[in-house]
Amino acid sequence: MSLTRTNTSAATLTKNRTEGSITPHSGMCVTCVDGCVGMCEIGKSAYRGHEVIYPQPFGVITTASEKIYPVDYSHFNIMGTAVGAVGIEADSDKAIFPNVDLEVRFGHDKGLKFRLPIMIPGIGSTDIAKNNWEGVGIGSALAGTGLTIGENVVGMDPNAVIKKGKIIDAPELKRRVDLFKDYQRDGYGAIVLQANIEDTRLGVQEYGIENLGVECVELKWGQGAKDIGGEVKIKDLKKAQLLYERGYIVLPNPTDPDVIKAFERGNFKEFERHSRVGMVTEESFAKRVEELRAAGAKYVHLKTGAYRPADLARAVKFASKYKIDLLTVDAAGGGTGMSPWRMMCEWGVPPVELHALLHQYLTHMADKGEHVPAVAPASGFTFEDQMFKGFAMGAPFVKLIGMARAPLAAAMVGKTLGRTINENELPVYVERFGNSKDEIFVTAHELRKEIGNDEFEKLPTAAIGLYTYYERLAQGMRQIMCGSRKFALEHITRDDIAAITRNAADITGIQYVTEVDKNESLSILNG
Question: What is the spatial distance between Cα 137 and Cα 133, in angstroms, rounded to a whole number?
Fold first, then answer.
């Protein structure tokens, strides 16, 4: 059953008056009473209008869809076995889960190396990204994973210097790059610089390559949360006017005298800044890839969203033809920033369906003998079981799993714990582990030993939180892979998972669980 809660959600800070009696198809109260002050989304829209399109309170939340899709990754189970081992000697003293290899290498020259197969695929100009970058940047670097600087970071920076439409100085971008590179160890992981229409016009990627030593850049077609450009809310008139001058779409027009007066009177309290939608053509794509490589980019990536299947086919074809190093495919329902709430719930191809199509298209290209890029599926991945299923669904093409909300959550919790430690206000359910970061964070001893006492003391607890979350994912993946007897990521195959609903099997081509090993089982029984 597919279900979306309509007319009421924590995302829009709305609720029904008759919470126990709701009309299913509309989400309205069964009895809508004259005299209600408007607690539901319809009611709130009656006085706040377009503001209610977006999740709230903006700036301190990440948001994802509430829609229940007919098929999701829980409709597949992981297949283990009692025999053999792949990627290691079939010896019970050697085939132990700590020996599972989670390192991955990819790129045209195999020069990108990650300790763990995780990429944060683009967090950009939102406050939630900016305020937590210290955690995700340092934590990702320490873990040897990937992190993408998302769209509009330079254009949103009030301290950026722009002359004749091109970026001259970008302090916030430099901060984000340096936080990662300063903590990167032994060349593991990568910082990736993404660009949308406005970033490309400003020359952001060229600036990053030439001035900040960025090697990986990413073209952005879209994301899974929405099919329009990036958006943020602006509460400061001067900043809204600055962004308008820099060429962004700002609503309402912050230079209009009547709008300025209305804002100063308090008639509305925030402006919306929007990015433009791209117009993809093969000619412009090829030209941009060539420009970036000529500018010195060592690796060029592409991120696409949950668009219709023909667009996914374009992404796969272009990535193949122009030798893209990593293709990230973000399915419907995810999101870290300010995406229109109903759009986030109702548009795009869901994860299982999109990732199944991705596998079909990649297989088609491989069968033709054409180049197949490394790929990273994304959308709602949070734990090791889902990561394993993502690898199996897209095997043998998947090299990384894209996730953003979960790593951000880990960093935010780490940050909050650091604050409560300093203020001696630890919650009881945390305090039982201790009252210092060495006692609370289970990886503290390991990190202190690896980077030294002085460096460890400088670490923000947000970074330790992300690192510790990744440590859990790594151990969980090793355990699952050991149970499936696959001791390196490259050995995971599609038959390492089985569909537990017929619908899931039909959509993906993954075998239904009772049909797995049918011929082998008969051979064993008849032997």
Answer: 5
Query: Strand, coil or helix: what is 169?
Result: strand
Q: How many CA atoms lie within 13 A of 152 on its CB side?
A: 22
Strand partners for 402: 119, 378
Is residue 194 within 8 A of residue 122, CB to CB? The reply is yes
Minimal CA–CA distance to 509: which of 288, 360, 380?
A: 360
Instruction: Say how far apart CA 166 and CA 380 lie, in whole Å.
Output: 36
Rounded CA-CA distance 507/421 in Å is 49
3-state class (DSSP) for residue 68 = strand
Residues of 130-145 as b/e, b for ≥16 C-beta within 10 angstroms?
A: bebbbbbbbbbbbbbb
**CB under 8 Å, gap of 24 or more: what pairs does 450-458 form?**
451/142
Interatomic CA distance for residues 90 and 73, integer angstroms: 30
Q: Name every residue whose Cβ is closer than 8 Å to that of residue 235 and which is 6 or more positions away in sequence.
A: 269, 270, 271
- Cβ-count burial of 257 within 10 angstroms (0-12 exposed, 13-18 middle, 19+ buried)? exposed
Cα separation, 224 vs 257, whole angstroms: 37
> pLDDT > 90: what percent of the chain?
87
Q: 460-481, pLDDT tens digit by residue? A: 999 999 999 999 999 999 999 9
Class of residue 515 by CB neighbours under 10 A (exposed 0-12, middle 13-18, buried 19+): exposed
pLDDT mean values, one per 10 residues, the chain (527 residues): 76 90 91 94 94 86 90 97 97 97 97 98 86 95 97 93 94 96 97 95 97 97 86 92 92 96 93 91 97 98 96 98 97 82 92 98 98 96 98 98 96 96 94 95 95 95 98 98 98 98 98 97 95
Cβ within 8 Å of residue 130, ≥6 positions away: 172
Question: Domains of the chain, with CATH numbers?
Answer: 10-53 (no CATH), 75-226+279-305+315-322+369-493 (3.20.20), 231-274 (no CATH), 494-526 (no CATH)
pLDDT digits 0-9 by tens, 55-79: 988 778 888 899 999 999 999 999 9
C-alpha distances in angstroms, 431 versus 39, 457, 465?
Answer: 38, 20, 16
Contacts of 199 by beta carbon, 8 Å cutoff, 6+ apart: 151, 152, 154, 155, 205
Which residue, chain included where needed, has tokens 């009692």? 82
